[in-house]
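Mods, move this if it's the wrong board.
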Amino acid sequence: MNFKAVIFDLDGTLLDSLEDLANTLNSVLDSNRLPMHETEAFRYLVGHGMGELVRKAVPQGKRHDRELLKKLEKEMLEHYALTWNNSTEPYLGIPELLDWLNSTPIKKGVLSNKSDKFTKLCVETLLSPWHFDLVTGHHPGINHKPDPQGAFMMAEKMHVDPTEVLFVGDSGVDMQTATAAGMYPLGVLWGFRTKEELLASGAKSLVEKPQEIIDLLSKSTQ
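Not the wrong board. Structure tokens:
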């Protein structure tokens, strides 16, 4: 296949942000006298946006308490603004992948379920050496993944056909998004979710290291 663009997920794909997300929400939960979670548990809580993260993190019996959820999400956003980059950093091999992409005509985008504000902040701060044609997080008017709306919008703005896009992510949500948009779903195994989830959700290929994405794209451009 001849890929003309790559759309990356952010958390669990480009950036290892699990510890900062876990520590921040645990602090909010603790201050509200709610049970906290082990960091590893957050691998299965994240991925559907901040509101859903908060909802999943509270006890089952409180998940319909709208006032509580609204309060917790507000506190989470306020705290995360101060703690989001305490330990968050690109995964090993991502800088080399982005270096290589910068040397090619392949367009690059980031599509995240994280809020648009924090998505752009993460990219501008931690991925500043590299050019991205488009960076989009969740905001009013764009549905959360796996709705393909954001993916279609990005393909249109990058002037590529969806079939020419390699969609790279670490979760079933990303694979479902790519499939719904008619893009090529590539699952990464260094992120938050399992090989089994990725395959069950439609991944056509899996990679263990970022270098393998370079190898795949090199073949597609020959």
